[in-house]
Write a structure and sequence with these properties.
Blueprint (H helix, E strand, L loop, with lengths): L3 H24 L4 H4 L1 H13 L3 H8 L1 H20 L4 H15 L2 H12 L2 H32 L4 H4 L1 H15 L15 H20 L9 H22 L14 H30 L5 H25 L5 H19 L8 H28 L6 H39 L7 H16 L9 H33 L10 H10 L1
Helix pairs in contact: 1-8, 1-10, 3-6, 3-11, 4-5, 4-17, 5-6, 5-10, 7-17, 8-14, 8-16, 11-12, 11-17, 13-14, 13-15, 13-16, 13-17, 13-19, 14-16, 15-16, 15-19, 16-20, 17-19, 18-19
Length: 503
């Protein structure tokens, strides 16, 4: 409960802001592009902090750093709720991201160290159930609070929970000797290069599609800076005595494979989760509440699947459970690629439920296998890397799939519009029918009037959009299936634990 609570409020806070963004924009008189920085600023500072969590834990002391992170997150939440302008809100969101970024890696590291290997699966399952509660309750809670009170209270709500979390950490968390504060030289170059590189990369991923990618000079410059800094960062860290991120962890094949799988799985998961509500609301006419009802059971199915996976992970080869979860997830996204403009609620609901089951069977064995190769002293660094690649996978997935969707809409629109000529046989049949329909409704008009062509154009756009959603979901399903190729590279936990002990 102690490590679950701070992680839960951090996850809830991320999803709550998405729901309330329109209210924030109206209250602070901000434009659409300006208001997105309320989300982007948090993601950037969050992404910078996550990879250096392990280093900061050793530098400050893990318990002290966890208390500090919760305190910064809580205080900045209060300031976000008190923000008097968009600029002040963005500034306090940066501070909030700096406090919140460490909460999940620290919680996972404490959890994995506290429980012996045979109990880690169930411990991670219970932790995962608590974590999955956030994305389910976050949007509903955010919408209710914003409509009932005001958007300020979505931030004020964190204050009492943060205070309770600090008190619980002070009472229940005890640092092992190797995680107490250590005196060591600060890797200034590593910190600088990582902050600039990850920060620029996150801005590129979040703003790229909106700026039409590399047609924008700003995106080109930021991409060049990100690539240069991250390449230099890797070179610096490999030769540093006290690196902020110990990249030598990747010498373990299981750890490297697990991180690749995590990146690709969250690439596909976030891509599909972004596409589904857009499809429901833009093409199927669902309200935000109905779209939430269609998406919510997927989170519930994950909460049910996780404890089952937690029990099985000690009785069955975890690689088999992982492969099963990936296949279920890939199949569910493939079902989404068969959606059409006449899909009913159940046709949308069940693929999302299946995806939730797949994610439950992926998360537990993947985390258990990936971390099995790590010694307890390395756990903080390992969980920081693992969470960074998870977040980057989601960011890359969202950026990629929104770009694919936009490009495929243009492609299908161009292909379909080729047939909208007076010489096309179908056109010669359809236009008179539409004209007659409009006349019956009281709109007397010639054969090729603006009303008829407008109806045809609107339907063409809907069909092109539907085809582009089909393409995007199909591409994600193929990418999810390809992840199976990396599963054989991972070793069973027992072998890695013994190898780790010899190391």
């Amino acid at each position: 409960m102690t490590v679950m609570l701070p992680t839960l409020i951090e996850i809830i806070d991320t999803s709550v802001v998405n729901v309330s963004l329109d209210h924030i924009r109206g209250s602070l008189s901000a434009g659409l592009d300006e208001s997105t920085w309320v989300i982007t600023s948090y993601l950037v500072s969050n992404a910078i902090i996550i990879p250096i969590t392990g280093w900061l834990s050793r530098f400050i002391g893990r318990k002290q750093y966890l208390i500090l992170s919760i305190a910064v997150f809580t205080a900045s939440s209060f300031m976000c709720g008190s923000a008097w302008s968009l600029q002040s809100l963005v500034f306090f969101r940066v501070l909030q991201g700096m406090g919140g970024g460490a909460l999940q890696p620290l919680s996972q590291a404490i959890l994995l160290e506290t429980f012996p290997a045979r109990q880690r699966g169930m411990a991670m399952a219970i932790f995962g159930v608590g974590v999955m509660f956030g994305p389910i309750v976050g949007p509903l809670l955010g919408g209710w609070i914003t409509d009932t009170w005001s958007w300020h209270w979505i931030f004020f709500l964190n204050v009492p929970i943060g205070i309770i979390s600090i008190l619980m950490v002070m009472v229940f968390i005890i640092d092992p000797p190797y995680m107490e504060r250590m005196r060591m030289r600060i890797d200034y170059w590593g910190l600088f290069l990582l902050a600039i590189g990850i920060g620029c990369l996150q801005i590129v991923l979040d703003q790229g599609q909106r700026a039409d990618w590399f047609s924008s000079p700003a995106i080109i410059y930021l991409s060049f800076i990100a690539a240069s800094c991250l390449i230099l960062f890797v070179m610096v860290e490999l030769f540093s005595e006290n690196p902020v991120v110990n990249l030598r962890a990747f010498k373990h094949l299981t750890f490297s494979s697990g991180n690749i799988i995590m990146f690709l799985v969250f690439f596909g998961l976030f891509g599909s989760i972004v596409l589904l509500p857009v499809y429901l609301q833009t093409l199927m006419g669902y309200t935000s509440f109905l779209a939430g009802l269609a998406l919510g059971p997927g989170g519930i199915s994950t909460m049910i699947a996780m404890p089952i996976a937690g029990v099985l992970v000690n009785k069955v080869n975890p690689k088999a459970i992982l492969a099963f979860g990936i296949m279920i997830a890939a199949y569910s996204v493939h079902l989404m690629s068969q959606f059409n403009l006449f899909a009913d609620f159940n046709a949308v609901l069940w693929p999302r439920v299946l995806l939730g089951v797949g994610m439950g069977f992926i998360f537990i064995p993947l985390t258990t296998l990936t971390m099995a190769a790590m010694r307890k002293e390395e756990m903080g660094n390992a969980t920081a890397i693992f969470n960074l690649l998870r977040n980057l996978g989601g960011s890359f997935g969202v950026a990629f799939i929104t770009t694919v969707l936009a490009r495929r809409v243009q492609f299908h629109q161009a292909r379909l519009i080729e047939h909208l000529t007076p010489f096309d046989r179908n056109m010669q049949v359809v236009v008179p029918q539409i004209s007659e329909f409009l006349r019956q409704k009281g709109f007397p008009s010639p054969l090729l009037d603006q009303g008829s062509l407008g109806v045809i154009q609107g339907e063409l756009l809907r069909q092109a959009s539907m085809l582009s959603f089909n393409d995007a979901f199909y591409l994600l399903s193929i990418m999810m299936a390809v992840v199976l190729l990396f599963v054989p590279l991972m070793k069973k936990g027992e072998e890695d634990v013994s190898a780790s002990g010899m190391h």
